Amino acid sequence: NEPFDLRLPTPGCYLDPEKAGMDSDAVFQGMTAHLFYTLGKLATSASPHDLYMALSYAVKDRLMTRYLASQEVIRKKPQKTVAYLSAEFLIGPQLSNNLLNLGITQEAEDALKRFGIESLSTILEVEEEPGLGNGGLGRLAACYMESLASLQVPAVGYGIRYEFGIFNQLIRDGWQVEVTDKWLKGGWPWELPQPDESCFVGFGGRTESYRDDKGNYRSRWIPSEHAIGVPHDVPVLGYRVNTCDRLRLWRADATESFDFYAFNIGDYYGAVEEKVASETLSKVLYPNDGTDEGRRLRLKQQHFFVSCSLQDMLRSLEKRSIPITEFPKHWTVQLNDTHPAIAVAELMRLLIDQYQIGWEKAWNITTSSVAYTNHTLLPEALEKWDLGLFNDLLPRHLEIIYEINWRFLQQLRLRYPGDDKILQKLSIIDEEGFKSVRMAHLATIGAHHINGVAALHSDLIKRQLMPEFAALWPEKFTNVTNGVTPRRWVALSNPSLSNLLEEEVGPNWITNMELLKKLEEKKDDNNFLEKFEETKLNGKRKLSSFVHSKTGILVDPSSLFDVQVKRIHQYKRQHLNALQIIAQYLRIKNGTNKFEVPRTIIFGGKAAPGYFMAKLMIRFINGIADVVNSDPDMDGLLRVVFLPDYNVKLGEIVYPATDLSEQISTAGKEASGTGNMKFAMNGALTIGTLDGANVELRDLVKKENFFLFGKTESEIMDLKNNNYSPKTFINQCPELKEVLRLIEIGHFSNGDKELFKPLLNSLTGHDPFFVMADFEDYLNKQDVVSECWNNKKAWNKMALLNTARSGYFSSDRSIREYCESIWKVSPMPVEITCDVEELT
Ligand SMILES: [N-]=[N+]=N[C@]1([C@H](N)O)O[C@H](CO)[C@@H](O)[C@H](O)[C@H]1O
C-alpha cells in the first residue's frame, strides 16, 4: 500500500525520536505550548497536575501521526479489522505506557527537569486511572488491545465510556467503603471525542409487520425511547511501531437535551428528564466481577454500546462503498464474554431491517463474523435475561432470537429425533421457572468459534458447561490461554529487572519473550542471581514505603513478601490464606514455629458492594492484621497488610515486589487468572492449585519451581458427589481446629463472637469452595516455602527460572493465536514516509 503521505506539519514519523520532534527540547516546547494555550497556565505557576496534563497533551501530539496513518491504512486498504467488543477495558494510567511505547521516557524526564521536576514519577503519581473494568476480564481486554497494536494488527476496541468507573475502596474500621470514582474530574487528555460519528440507539416500543415494495412481509421496530452514542476515541499505540489502533468508547447523550416546552411551564425536571435518562446509560460501571447483574439498565448498557459499535462498523463499509454483504471480509467481531452477546441479534436486525438482506444471507454474515470468549464456569455468572424485561426493552431482538432459536431447534430435532430434553437444555430460551434468554447459548449458536481462556477451562467448557454444544460443533470449540503485555507488566513496572534482562538477552525480549529462555544458562551463576535478587529488593523497598505511606504499617523488605491481590471472592479463597496466617500466628505464639522466616503477607482487592461474604472476608483479614501487627511476639516474624484500592496502578508496584504469589482458588473455579502470569514474569514463585492457567504455568516453569497443593478439579468433583463433609477434614487437623476455635471466641474481633459467625458457619457447614479440604495440604506447603526461602540460592534460581520460562504468557502469543486460529487476520504494518527536513 502506498505510504501515508505526511504533508501535514506534524512531528512524528517513527524514524528516530531525535529527528522527528521527539527530543527532550521538542517535548519541553510542546509542554510549554500546552501549558500556555491549552491550560492557560504559566510554567512558573504550574501545579504537578498541570504539568501532567501538559506532558500528556505533548505526548498525545506525538501519537497523532501514527494514529491518523493507522486509520488511513484501514480506510484505504480493504483489510479485515479486529473489533473487540467488551463492556470493560481496564486500561490503567496512560502517560507512562505511551512514553515507553514511543520510546521517549528519558526525553520526558529531561524536559520535566527544566520545569524543576526531578523525577517523572512525581508527575505519574497524579494521573487518575480510568477504572473502566472490574478485574481480569477488563484488564485482559486492555492487554489485548496493546498487543494487537504492537503486532501491527488493525483493530478497534469497542466499549463504554463510563462517567464513573470501578469505585475507589477505602478501609474504615477494617470494612470496605465504596467511594464514587470521579476519574474525569481533572479532565482526561487521552481521548478524542468524535461527535460527528454519533449513532442513534433505540429501546422499548413495539414491532409491526408490513409489506415492503416487493410485497414481502417484513417486520420493523418502532422504539419508544432513543439515545445518542457519542464516540470518544483513545489511541492505543503499539510498542516502537507505527501502528496506533483505537479504543472507541461510547458516551450516552440525549436526542433532545432540553425540553423547552416543559421548562416554559415550569416543569424544570421534565425539561432535562430525557437528558438525565439517556446519560444514565453510560453513567456507571456495574461493579460485579463475574456475577450476572440482571438489571434493566445493565441490559440497556449492553445493547447501547453493541448497537453503536455494529452501526459504526457497517457505516465504515458504506463510507468505503464496500457491499454490506462483504462484512465478514472486513470485520471480525470478538465478544468478550456474554456482555456483548446481544450483538448476534443486533447484527441480524441491522442486516435484515436496515439493509434489507435476507435471513439466510444475514445469518451467514453474522455466524462467519462473530466469535465468543467464555471467561467463567460459575453458574451465577452466566447471564440470563428475564423474558419479560427482554421483550419490554428489545421486542424486535426477541423476535429475531425466537427465529434463530426455532431454526436451531429444527436442526437439533433432525440430529436428535424425539429427544425433547436436549432441545430444552440447549434452547436459547430457558423455559424452566422464570422464562429467560440464555446469552451464552445465543453467543454459542451465533459464533464461529467459542474459546475458553486456559487449557483446563476450555476443557471444562466442553466436558461440563456445554457438552452437548461441543458434541454438536466440536470444530467451534477451542482454547486461547490468556496472556499479559510485558510492556506494562515488566518493562514499565519493573525497570531494574528490565535493564538486567536487556543486559543479558538484548532489548528484543520486550516483543519476543521467548528470548528469556536464554536466562536458564544463568541459573547457577551466583553473581547473576544476586543481581536478579537485587531487582526484587528494589521493588520490595518501593512497595514497603508505599505500604507505610498508605497504612502506617512498617514492613521489612528483606522478609518474604507473600502476596494475594485480586477481586475478593470465595472461590479465590482469600479466607483460606487468612486461616493459614492464624495457624502461623499460633505457631509463633506456641513456639512451634519450625522456620524463623519473617513474612509480610499482603492482600489487596475489591469486593462487589452487594457481596456480603466478600466484604466480611476483608473485615476478617483486617481483624487478623490488627491482632498480629500489634502483638510484640510477631515483631520481625509476621506482618499482615490489607492494601486499599487495589487497581492497575497499584499492581504496577506490587508485581515486581513479590516473592510468593498466592493462586489458591478451588480447582475448576478460576478460568485462568492473569495475575499469576504477571507475578511469574517478575520472578515470583507461585503457591497454587491445579486451576486455570496455573496448570500451564507449572508445566512451563517445571514442577520443582512451583509450590503445588490441593485437590484437583476431579477430586473436588468426587468430594462434591460424595457428600463432602468439612468436619471430616477439621477433625483430622488439630491446627485447623485450634484456628477455628480462636475465631469463634472472637480473638480477631475484639471478643465479638457474632461478627465472623457467617464465615465460620459457611466454612464448617457447607464450605462450598472446599477450604477445609485443602487447608492442611496448604499449610504444609507453606512450610516447604519457608524451608526453601532459607536457601537463598535455591530460591533465586527458582525465581529466575520462572521469569525465564514465562514468555508463553505474553499477550502477544495469545493474540497471535487469535489471529491465526479464530480471526484469520495478519499484521498490516503502517508505513510513514516523511521527509524529515520537511517536518522539522
Ligand atoms: N468474568 N470473568 N472472568 C475472569 C475474571 N474474573 O475477570 O476473567 C479473567 C480473564 O479471562 C480470568 O483470568 C479469570 O479467571 C475469570 O474469573
TrEMBL record:
One of its GO terms (molecular function) is glycogen phosphorylase activity. Pfam families: Phosphorylase. CDD domains: GT35_Glycogen_Phosphorylase. One of its GO terms (biological process) is glycogen catabolic process. It comes from the Bacteria. Its EC number is 2.4.1.1. Keywords: Carbohydrate metabolism, Glycogen metabolism, Glycosyltransferase, Phosphoprotein, Pyridoxal phosphate, Transferase. The modification N6-(pyridoxal phosphate)lysine is found at K678. Phosphorylase is an important allosteric enzyme in carbohydrate metabolism. Enzymes from different sources differ in their regulatory mechanisms and in their natural substrates. However, all known phosphorylases share catalytic and structural properties. This is Alpha-1,4 glucan phosphorylase. It comes from Prochlorococcus marinus (strain MIT 9301). The lineage of its organism: Bacteria, Bacillati, Cyanobacteriota, Cyanophyceae, Synechococcales. The gene is glgP.
